[in-house]
Design goal:
alpha+beta; 14 helices
Protein backbone atom coordinates (compact mmCIF):
# COMPACT_ATOMS: atom_id res chain seq x y z
CA UNK A 1 0.00 0.00 0.00
CA UNK A 2 1.19 3.53 -0.78
CA UNK A 3 0.80 5.74 2.29
CA UNK A 4 1.11 9.52 2.30
CA UNK A 5 1.71 11.03 5.75
CA UNK A 6 1.11 14.75 6.20
CA UNK A 7 3.73 15.03 8.90
CA UNK A 8 3.28 17.59 11.64
CA UNK A 9 3.29 15.89 15.03
CA UNK A 10 6.72 14.44 15.94
CA UNK A 11 7.56 10.75 15.89
CA UNK A 12 8.12 10.84 19.66
CA UNK A 13 4.37 11.31 20.07
CA UNK A 14 3.01 9.51 16.97
CA UNK A 15 5.32 6.48 16.93
CA UNK A 16 4.83 5.85 13.22
CA UNK A 17 7.71 3.38 13.16
CA UNK A 18 5.93 1.14 15.66
CA UNK A 19 2.53 1.27 13.98
CA UNK A 20 3.31 1.13 10.25
CA UNK A 21 5.31 -1.68 8.66
CA UNK A 22 7.60 0.51 6.57
CA UNK A 23 9.03 -2.55 4.82
CA UNK A 24 5.64 -3.80 3.67
CA UNK A 25 4.25 -0.38 2.71
CA UNK A 26 5.69 2.47 0.67
CA UNK A 27 5.50 5.45 3.04
CA UNK A 28 6.04 9.05 1.98
CA UNK A 29 6.27 11.82 4.60
CA UNK A 30 5.46 15.36 3.47
CA UNK A 31 6.90 17.82 5.95
CA UNK A 32 8.43 21.25 6.37
CA UNK A 33 12.11 21.99 6.87
CA UNK A 34 11.74 22.82 10.56
CA UNK A 35 10.29 19.37 11.30
CA UNK A 36 12.77 17.19 9.44
CA UNK A 37 14.39 16.18 12.72
CA UNK A 38 11.10 14.78 14.08
CA UNK A 39 10.60 12.06 11.46
CA UNK A 40 10.90 8.33 12.23
CA UNK A 41 14.40 6.89 11.94
CA UNK A 42 15.66 3.37 11.30
CA UNK A 43 12.95 2.52 8.76
CA UNK A 44 12.80 3.10 4.99
CA UNK A 45 10.88 6.29 4.15
CA UNK A 46 10.58 8.84 1.36
CA UNK A 47 10.74 12.44 2.57
CA UNK A 48 9.29 15.32 0.57
CA UNK A 49 9.76 18.87 1.85
CA UNK A 50 6.86 21.19 1.09
CA UNK A 51 6.70 24.96 1.03
CA UNK A 52 4.73 26.98 3.58
CA UNK A 53 2.52 29.43 1.71
CA UNK A 54 -0.33 29.23 4.21
CA UNK A 55 -2.40 26.85 2.09
CA UNK A 56 -1.36 23.46 3.44
CA UNK A 57 -3.38 21.40 0.97
CA UNK A 58 -1.98 23.27 -2.03
CA UNK A 59 1.56 22.96 -0.67
CA UNK A 60 1.19 19.20 -0.12
CA UNK A 61 -0.32 18.65 -3.57
CA UNK A 62 2.49 20.62 -5.21
CA UNK A 63 5.12 18.67 -3.27
CA UNK A 64 3.80 15.22 -4.30
CA UNK A 65 3.05 16.11 -7.91
CA UNK A 66 4.38 13.34 -10.13
CA UNK A 67 4.40 10.69 -7.40
CA UNK A 68 2.07 7.68 -7.64
CA UNK A 69 -1.35 8.33 -6.12
CA UNK A 70 -1.55 7.17 -2.49
CA UNK A 71 -3.90 4.47 -1.24
CA UNK A 72 -4.09 6.16 2.15
CA UNK A 73 -3.56 9.73 3.40
CA UNK A 74 -2.73 10.06 7.10
CA UNK A 75 -2.95 13.33 8.99
CA UNK A 76 -3.28 13.58 12.76
CA UNK A 77 -2.91 17.31 13.40
CA UNK A 78 -6.10 19.21 14.23
CA UNK A 79 -5.06 22.00 11.90
CA UNK A 80 -4.64 19.59 8.97
CA UNK A 81 -8.06 17.92 9.12
CA UNK A 82 -9.59 20.00 6.33
CA UNK A 83 -6.38 20.22 4.23
CA UNK A 84 -6.04 16.43 4.42
CA UNK A 85 -9.62 16.02 3.21
CA UNK A 86 -8.87 18.33 0.28
CA UNK A 87 -5.75 16.31 -0.56
CA UNK A 88 -7.76 13.08 -0.53
CA UNK A 89 -10.38 14.53 -2.83
CA UNK A 90 -7.83 15.78 -5.37
CA UNK A 91 -5.74 12.59 -5.33
CA UNK A 92 -8.74 10.26 -5.29
CA UNK A 93 -7.70 8.60 -2.04
CA UNK A 94 -10.33 7.03 0.22
CA UNK A 95 -11.26 8.68 3.49
CA UNK A 96 -13.19 11.61 4.90
CA UNK A 97 -14.17 14.42 2.53
CA UNK A 98 -14.29 18.13 3.35
CA UNK A 99 -18.06 17.99 3.92
CA UNK A 100 -17.64 15.03 6.24
CA UNK A 101 -15.00 16.69 8.42
CA UNK A 102 -16.71 20.06 8.83
CA UNK A 103 -18.73 18.87 11.87
CA UNK A 104 -15.44 18.23 13.71
CA UNK A 105 -13.78 21.53 12.71
CA UNK A 106 -16.43 24.22 12.23
CA UNK A 107 -17.90 25.00 15.66
CA UNK A 108 -21.21 26.27 14.28
CA UNK A 109 -21.72 23.16 12.15
CA UNK A 110 -20.55 21.05 15.10
CA UNK A 111 -22.93 22.50 17.70
CA UNK A 112 -25.81 22.54 15.23
CA UNK A 113 -25.36 18.79 14.75
CA UNK A 114 -25.13 18.05 18.47
CA UNK A 115 -28.11 20.27 19.31
CA UNK A 116 -30.07 18.51 16.59
CA UNK A 117 -29.53 15.24 18.44
CA UNK A 118 -31.32 16.61 21.48
CA UNK A 119 -28.21 17.42 23.53
CA UNK A 120 -27.59 20.72 25.26
CA UNK A 121 -25.03 23.11 23.79
CA UNK A 122 -24.32 26.77 24.64
CA UNK A 123 -26.59 29.08 22.66
CA UNK A 124 -24.59 30.35 19.71
CA UNK A 125 -24.63 32.27 16.44
CA UNK A 126 -22.23 32.88 13.56
CA UNK A 127 -20.57 36.23 14.18
CA UNK A 128 -21.65 37.77 10.82
CA UNK A 129 -25.28 36.92 11.58
CA UNK A 130 -25.05 38.43 15.07
CA UNK A 131 -23.43 41.58 13.70
CA UNK A 132 -26.08 41.95 11.00
CA UNK A 133 -29.03 41.22 13.26
CA UNK A 134 -27.77 43.00 16.34
CA UNK A 135 -28.07 42.02 19.98
CA UNK A 136 -31.76 41.20 19.65
CA UNK A 137 -31.02 38.49 17.07
CA UNK A 138 -29.50 36.20 19.71
CA UNK A 139 -31.34 34.59 22.59
CA UNK A 140 -29.04 35.44 25.51
CA UNK A 141 -27.80 38.70 27.04
CA UNK A 142 -25.13 37.80 29.62
CA UNK A 143 -21.51 36.75 29.42
CA UNK A 144 -20.51 35.96 25.86
CA UNK A 145 -17.62 34.07 24.29
CA UNK A 146 -16.14 35.10 20.96
CA UNK A 147 -14.11 32.31 19.39
CA UNK A 148 -12.79 31.13 16.01
CA UNK A 149 -14.87 28.57 14.11
CA UNK A 150 -11.82 26.33 13.73
CA UNK A 151 -9.56 27.53 16.52
CA UNK A 152 -7.14 25.56 18.63
CA UNK A 153 -6.29 25.74 22.31
CA UNK A 154 -8.49 28.80 23.05
CA UNK A 155 -6.23 30.94 20.89
CA UNK A 156 -8.06 34.16 19.83
CA UNK A 157 -10.89 33.34 22.26
CA UNK A 158 -12.32 36.26 24.25
CA UNK A 159 -14.94 36.53 27.00
CA UNK A 160 -17.13 39.65 27.36
CA UNK A 161 -19.67 40.61 30.04
CA UNK A 162 -22.52 40.90 27.52
CA UNK A 163 -23.42 40.19 23.91
CA UNK A 164 -23.39 43.93 23.27
CA UNK A 165 -19.83 44.27 24.57
CA UNK A 166 -18.67 41.43 22.32
CA UNK A 167 -20.27 42.87 19.21
CA UNK A 168 -19.08 46.40 20.03
CA UNK A 169 -15.50 45.15 20.34
CA UNK A 170 -15.72 43.84 16.79
CA UNK A 171 -17.60 46.83 15.39
CA UNK A 172 -15.19 49.27 16.99
CA UNK A 173 -12.10 47.55 15.70
CA UNK A 174 -10.81 46.60 19.17
CA UNK A 175 -10.23 43.11 17.77
CA UNK A 176 -8.59 42.59 14.41
CA UNK A 177 -10.45 39.54 13.16
CA UNK A 178 -12.20 38.19 10.09
CA UNK A 179 -15.84 38.02 11.19
CA UNK A 180 -16.77 35.13 8.91
CA UNK A 181 -14.25 32.95 10.75
CA UNK A 182 -15.76 33.52 14.20
CA UNK A 183 -18.86 32.74 16.25
CA UNK A 184 -20.38 34.05 19.47
CA UNK A 185 -21.85 31.80 22.15
CA UNK A 186 -23.26 32.15 25.63
CA UNK A 187 -20.88 31.60 28.54
CA UNK A 188 -22.03 28.57 30.55
CA UNK A 189 -20.59 28.32 34.06
CA UNK A 190 -19.08 25.11 35.36
CA UNK A 191 -15.95 22.99 35.52
CA UNK A 192 -14.65 21.75 32.19
CA UNK A 193 -14.25 18.07 31.40
CA UNK A 194 -12.38 16.47 28.56
CA UNK A 195 -13.25 12.95 27.49
CA UNK A 196 -10.74 11.02 25.41
CA UNK A 197 -10.89 7.65 23.77
CA UNK A 198 -10.91 5.43 20.72
CA UNK A 199 -13.79 4.15 18.59
CA UNK A 200 -14.02 1.31 16.09
CA UNK A 201 -17.13 1.20 13.91
CA UNK A 202 -18.93 3.43 16.41
CA UNK A 203 -18.14 1.20 19.38
CA UNK A 204 -15.89 2.41 22.21
CA UNK A 205 -12.58 0.61 22.61
CA UNK A 206 -11.56 2.79 25.53
CA UNK A 207 -13.03 5.96 27.09
CA UNK A 208 -11.56 8.01 29.95
CA UNK A 209 -12.70 11.38 31.31
CA UNK A 210 -10.59 14.06 32.97
CA UNK A 211 -11.35 17.33 34.73
CA UNK A 212 -9.39 20.49 34.02
CA UNK A 213 -7.82 22.39 36.91
CA UNK A 214 -7.93 25.87 35.47
CA UNK A 215 -9.04 26.42 31.87
CA UNK A 216 -7.60 26.43 28.37
CA UNK A 217 -8.64 30.09 28.07
CA UNK A 218 -6.75 30.99 31.23
CA UNK A 219 -3.76 29.06 29.93
CA UNK A 220 -3.85 30.99 26.66
CA UNK A 221 -3.69 34.15 28.77
CA UNK A 222 -0.63 32.88 30.66
CA UNK A 223 -2.09 31.09 33.69
CA UNK A 224 -1.11 27.53 34.70
CA UNK A 225 -3.44 24.68 33.89
CA UNK A 226 -3.79 21.07 34.97
CA UNK A 227 -5.84 18.00 34.19
CA UNK A 228 -6.87 15.12 36.45
CA UNK A 229 -8.37 11.83 35.30
CA UNK A 230 -11.63 10.85 36.98
CA UNK A 231 -13.83 7.78 37.19
CA UNK A 232 -15.81 7.54 33.97
CA UNK A 233 -19.29 6.21 34.59
CA UNK A 234 -21.72 4.68 32.12
CA UNK A 235 -23.88 7.82 31.93
CA UNK A 236 -20.99 10.05 30.87
CA UNK A 237 -19.78 7.43 28.39
CA UNK A 238 -23.24 7.11 26.84
CA UNK A 239 -23.61 10.90 26.59
CA UNK A 240 -20.20 11.13 24.94
CA UNK A 241 -21.12 8.47 22.38
CA UNK A 242 -24.31 10.40 21.51
CA UNK A 243 -22.20 13.50 20.84
CA UNK A 244 -19.76 11.54 18.68
CA UNK A 245 -22.57 10.00 16.62
CA UNK A 246 -24.05 13.46 16.07
CA UNK A 247 -20.87 14.74 14.41
CA UNK A 248 -20.11 11.52 12.56
CA UNK A 249 -17.08 10.25 14.48
CA UNK A 250 -17.13 6.46 14.15
CA UNK A 251 -13.48 5.38 13.89
CA UNK A 252 -10.31 6.56 15.54
CA UNK A 253 -9.48 8.78 18.51
CA UNK A 254 -11.53 11.65 19.86
CA UNK A 255 -11.05 14.53 22.27
CA UNK A 256 -14.31 16.02 23.55
CA UNK A 257 -14.79 18.94 25.94
CA UNK A 258 -17.89 19.59 28.02
CA UNK A 259 -19.08 21.87 30.81
CA UNK A 260 -20.25 20.31 34.08
CA UNK A 261 -23.56 22.10 34.64
CA UNK A 262 -25.96 21.25 37.52
CA UNK A 263 -28.45 19.69 35.13
CA UNK A 264 -25.85 17.61 33.30
CA UNK A 265 -23.01 18.00 30.81
CA UNK A 266 -23.15 20.75 28.20
CA UNK A 267 -21.34 20.02 24.95
CA UNK A 268 -18.50 22.43 24.18
CA UNK A 269 -16.51 20.98 21.27
CA UNK A 270 -14.97 17.79 19.90
CA UNK A 271 -12.12 16.80 17.64
CA UNK A 272 -11.57 13.58 15.68
CA UNK A 273 -8.05 13.41 17.01
CA UNK A 274 -6.01 12.81 20.13
CA UNK A 275 -5.70 15.51 22.77
CA UNK A 276 -2.57 17.50 23.58
CA UNK A 277 0.73 15.73 24.19
CA UNK A 278 0.32 15.63 27.98
CA UNK A 279 -3.21 14.19 27.57
CA UNK A 280 -1.82 11.48 25.31
CA UNK A 281 0.89 10.66 27.86
CA UNK A 282 -1.35 10.31 30.91
CA UNK A 283 -3.99 8.44 28.89
CA UNK A 284 -1.35 5.87 27.96
CA UNK A 285 -0.20 5.57 31.58
CA UNK A 286 -3.75 4.85 32.76
CA UNK A 287 -5.01 2.60 29.95
CA UNK A 288 -1.95 1.27 28.14
CA UNK A 289 -3.20 2.77 24.85
CA UNK A 290 -1.26 5.51 23.08
CA UNK A 291 -3.99 7.18 21.08
CA UNK A 292 -1.97 8.67 18.18
CA UNK A 293 -0.24 5.36 17.51
CA UNK A 294 -3.50 3.44 17.82
CA UNK A 295 -5.09 5.82 15.31
CA UNK A 296 -2.33 5.14 12.78
CA UNK A 297 -2.47 1.39 13.33
CA UNK A 298 -6.25 1.40 12.91
CA UNK A 299 -5.94 3.20 9.57
CA UNK A 300 -3.23 0.91 8.23
CA UNK A 301 -3.97 -2.50 9.74
CA UNK A 302 -7.56 -2.29 10.94
CA UNK A 303 -8.83 -3.09 14.43
CA UNK A 304 -7.15 -6.50 14.76
CA UNK A 305 -3.79 -5.00 15.72
CA UNK A 306 -5.02 -2.60 18.39
CA UNK A 307 -3.70 -3.06 21.94
CA UNK A 308 -6.12 -4.30 24.58
CA UNK A 309 -6.86 -1.42 26.99
CA UNK A 310 -6.99 -1.72 30.75
CA UNK A 311 -9.56 0.00 32.94
CA UNK A 312 -7.75 1.90 35.71
CA UNK A 313 -8.99 1.58 39.27
CA UNK A 314 -10.07 4.79 41.08
CA UNK A 315 -6.71 5.04 42.87
CA UNK A 316 -4.59 4.36 39.75
CA UNK A 317 -5.37 7.54 37.83
CA UNK A 318 -3.00 10.25 36.58
CA UNK A 319 -2.81 13.99 36.22
CA UNK A 320 -0.60 16.65 34.69
CA UNK A 321 0.15 20.36 35.01
CA UNK A 322 1.71 23.04 32.81
CA UNK A 323 2.98 26.57 33.45
CA UNK A 324 3.13 28.33 30.08
CA UNK A 325 5.87 30.68 28.95
CA UNK A 326 4.32 32.26 25.87
CA UNK A 327 2.80 35.21 27.75
CA UNK A 328 5.93 36.17 29.73
CA UNK A 329 7.15 38.77 27.22
CA UNK A 330 10.56 37.17 27.57
CA UNK A 331 12.37 34.23 26.01
CA UNK A 332 13.53 33.11 29.46
CA UNK A 333 11.85 32.52 32.78
CA UNK A 334 12.55 32.48 36.49
CA UNK A 335 10.74 29.87 38.59
CA UNK A 336 10.36 30.13 42.37
CA UNK A 337 8.53 28.12 45.01
CA UNK A 338 8.74 24.80 43.18
CA UNK A 339 11.41 23.08 45.31
CA UNK A 340 9.09 21.57 47.89
CA UNK A 341 6.99 19.91 45.18
CA UNK A 342 9.69 18.47 42.90
CA UNK A 343 10.46 15.40 45.01
CA UNK A 344 6.91 14.67 46.17
CA UNK A 345 5.99 10.96 45.81
CA UNK A 346 3.10 11.93 43.51
CA UNK A 347 5.50 13.35 40.91
CA UNK A 348 6.20 10.89 38.13
CA UNK A 349 7.87 13.27 35.65
CA UNK A 350 9.15 16.81 36.11
CA UNK A 351 10.11 19.18 33.27
CA UNK A 352 11.60 22.52 34.32
CA UNK A 353 13.28 25.14 32.17
CA UNK A 354 16.60 26.28 33.53
CA UNK A 355 17.45 29.98 33.58
CA UNK A 356 19.52 29.74 30.39
CA UNK A 357 17.01 27.60 28.45
CA UNK A 358 14.46 29.50 26.34
CA UNK A 359 10.75 28.78 26.63
CA UNK A 360 8.41 28.58 23.65
CA UNK A 361 7.06 31.99 22.66
CA UNK A 362 4.10 30.28 21.00
CA UNK A 363 1.13 28.77 22.81
CA UNK A 364 1.94 25.09 23.30
CA UNK A 365 0.89 22.19 25.50
CA UNK A 366 4.12 20.24 25.00
CA UNK A 367 5.73 19.60 28.42
CA UNK A 368 9.26 20.06 27.11
CA UNK A 369 8.58 23.51 25.66
CA UNK A 370 6.79 25.30 28.51
CA UNK A 371 8.30 26.86 31.63
CA UNK A 372 7.32 24.06 34.01
CA UNK A 373 5.34 20.86 33.57
CA UNK A 374 4.85 17.57 35.30
CA UNK A 375 3.05 14.24 35.32
CA UNK A 376 1.48 12.96 38.53
CA UNK A 377 0.27 9.58 39.74
CA UNK A 378 -0.96 7.04 40.09
CA UNK A 379 -3.38 8.16 42.76
CA UNK A 380 -6.96 9.30 43.34
CA UNK A 381 -8.51 12.32 41.61
CA UNK A 382 -8.83 14.08 44.98
CA UNK A 383 -5.13 13.69 45.81
CA UNK A 384 -4.03 14.70 42.31
CA UNK A 385 -6.16 17.85 42.24
CA UNK A 386 -5.12 18.84 45.75
CA UNK A 387 -1.47 18.65 44.73
CA UNK A 388 -2.05 20.77 41.61
CA UNK A 389 -4.00 23.45 43.50
CA UNK A 390 -1.25 23.78 46.12
CA UNK A 391 1.33 23.93 43.34
CA UNK A 392 -0.54 26.72 41.58
CA UNK A 393 -0.81 28.69 44.82
CA UNK A 394 2.92 28.38 45.57
CA UNK A 395 4.86 28.49 42.31
CA UNK A 396 5.61 31.73 40.50
CA UNK A 397 6.93 31.98 36.93
CA UNK A 398 8.29 35.38 35.95
CA UNK A 399 10.33 36.78 33.07
CA UNK A 400 14.02 36.06 33.38
CA UNK A 401 17.37 36.40 31.68
CA UNK A 402 19.83 33.65 30.76
CA UNK A 403 22.48 32.97 33.37
CA UNK A 404 25.98 34.12 32.42
CA UNK A 405 28.24 31.26 31.40
CA UNK A 406 31.54 31.09 33.14
Amino acid sequence: MRILVMHSIPESSMRYAENIDHYEHEVTYVTVTAKLNSLPVGVPIRVVVRSETGDTAADVLAAVKGLPAPDLVISTSELDVIPAARVREVLGAPGATVCEVLPVRDKVVMKTAVEGSGLRVPRFAPLPAALAGGENSVSWRGRTVLKPLAGQGSDQTHVFPTVTAALDAVRGGDLSIEADRFEVEEFVSGRILHVDGLLVAGRPVVVLASRYVGTCLGYAQGKPMGSVQIETGADLTDWTLRCLRAVGIENGPFHLEAIEAPEGPVFLEVGARSGARYVVDIFELATGVRLPGAAVRLLVEGPAGLPAPRVPSPDRLYGAFLFPGHALDSAYCRITGEGVFRDDPLVLRWHQKQADAPVSRRLTYSPGLVALAGTLGPSSPRALESFILKLFDSVLVTPGEPSPRG
